[in-house]
Amino acid sequence: MKRPHILLITSDMQRSDCFGAFAGRGVRAPHVEALARRGTRFDACITPNIVCQPSRASILTGMLPLTHGVYDNGVDLAPELAKDGFAAALGRAGYQTAFVGKAHFATFETFSPTGTPECRYSSTRFGADWSGPYMGFDYVNLCVMGHLHRKRPPERPPAGRHYERWFYSRGDGEEALRLHTTALPPDTGAANTWNSALPEAWHTSTWVADRAIEVLRTRDADRPLCMWVSFPDPHHPYAPPEPWSRMYPHETVTLPEHRALDLDRRPWWHRAALEGEPKIDDPRLREHRKSVSRVLAQTDAQLAHMTANYFGMISLIDHNVGRIMNSVRDLGLEDDTLVVYTTDHGEFLGDHGLFLKGPMAYEGVLRIGMVISGPGVSGGKVVDDPVSTLDLAATFCDYAGAGLPPEAQSRTLRPLMAGSNAGRDAAYSEWKLLPLRCGVALDLRTVRTRTHKLTIEMSSGEGELYDLRNDPYEMRNLWKDPGHAAERRRLEDLIKARPGKVREQFTEPVGIY
To answer: Of all residues in the chain, what percent carry a pLDDT higher than 70?
Structure first.
């Protein structure tokens, strides 16, 4: 079989139960659903880390966070590791490589200039005609910020990158910014939530699809293409344009059954992370960290508005996935293209009274959807083996005839998609937090099997264990339950047997986001 084109499409912060009709929350995503019918769906895929930078670095390198060293947001991926990631490996194997959208391999909100095109202080060093190479990709077209906050506008030219410069060129003056920050009714007061007046044509999801289609149309026809298309949504703020903000009436969305804080039954770090103060010298950055890492309690009406807009953002992404797939078909590439749709991590969205993401490895943030279709992929198949998005690097290299360095923990998914019975026992996630995030240092290691999940805070030795089959909402922590002592020991042994080396030294963070 000739080497296929590879198209990796990712969203940002999309829950596994919000991937379409098969996922259960009522989100309409017909184009991702079509990919699932034609291909294989991974029902127990987890993220290597439950925030952006570490998880994206793991997808690129095929390594767990404590191996590649990006242990939290604010820590940049070392360029020398990116040179051994899947993009560089495929480039050396003859592929044309491209990245479109939100990369977040390096920090945006830095303490001082870092020299990367994603740094808010350094982006001015890269001219308007700069398009790579970057982190192993020959060509890039980037959103630096991607998430259009009302109180934090995108960087103005000459700062920012491709989308930000394009955004400020829309309309007269700063019309795009004015429209985006204009809230259309209703206004429920929900956190980070409003119905944006920004035209759909100026939204990041539309822009990312437009740029991806342009790459498809202008690709080198003599070489296979590997392109990562990265949508910045449905990450907060929850501000989709019309008509997507009105696609899901608030009264029709399903709210979590368990949506009240229950910290008394949880390990100590749950409360500490919510109540601690970020230890950052700069007051402005400290307040920014608080604003992007926690949301106070919401009424049911506010949570319904937040959820409806979150769903609308996903459906807008799906609409643009359809546009990209139409281009793939129109160009005659459908039978020769491996297509992956997944995300970097999930979102609490009210589970246990929590919002956004944080150091609580509940299924809403840890478990993510992943759908793969293309040559040699079984149609309509559902895999319940515990896998990880870090396995994508080895999968792409397998199809391309390329290789990863021996320290990579990525394992190809190709046998599972071809119908092999070679199963997986467990998948891993890990996160090392410094006090600048929430005022407390944490070293969290998580292992997930088909039926159970264990998280240990390594510094204190405390943990939590959940029986996912009998307690899918994770209401009962079995860590100290004598009846589950054997299962706890088994999962603790899996964490001790974590594949690959943990770094002895880690670099200091260069920023907070």
So the answer is: 97
